[in-house]
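dude i think i finally got it to work??
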Amino acid sequence: MQELLKKLVFTTEEALEYFPNRNNAFYYLKKSVQDNKISKIKNGLYALINPATQTVYVDKYMIASKINKGSFIAYHSALEFYGKANQVFTTVYVGSTERFATFEYDGLQYKFVYYPVTADIENIQSSTDIVVTSYEQTLIDCVDKVDLAGGSEELIKAFMDCQEANVDKLLTIVKRYANKCLYQKVGFIFEKFNNLLNLPQSFFEECERNIGKSVIYFMQDLGYKGSVSYKWKIIAPDFPPELGYTKEIK
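look at this
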């Protein structure tokens, strides 16, 4: 059993490997939950309890990475993981190759998010593996679905704290979506913060070559007076001074 418990968080299928039959495995899991040695996170997923604190050893990132074989941390939760989020949410966004029902555990809601394309993910080695969208994928995702990034203010603040990104990864990820509107949004906001991202001009030229012909609205939830970016064919709010970015959209 010690080898199983070293995993800290494990599935029923993993537990079955350590017992001669299913009945023994299910009896062990049920008894261990009753004895407060392990915690049932959801059907089929368990975590070891620290006897000193009476809480599980693992955090929300480790749990999200173990929900099923294809699960990974995404959107605002990935921003939190990379230390780029302004707020900590009680919703954990989880992408996966397998759909699962949203569930709650220890005051947090673990919510499935559908991915239309294969995500670029990172496997982070820790006491138990953490699987998270790459920094580049996270930025693209949050621009694509601002609501899952926590809204426009949260997105802007994340960009204000952004770091250099891999240009080849960014272009590969955007290309997978084959979405002209996404090229518009990415080109627009990445250009605003390129003093931090340090992307070459070729990146923006590629985005501009692939934008749509129609003018689109972006970040309208800010509710501030908007301006037109003729280059990117976008109508977006002027970023207010309190967000720390004062340049006008041209």
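Confidence is low (pLDDT under 50) at residues 246-250.
im so relieved honestly
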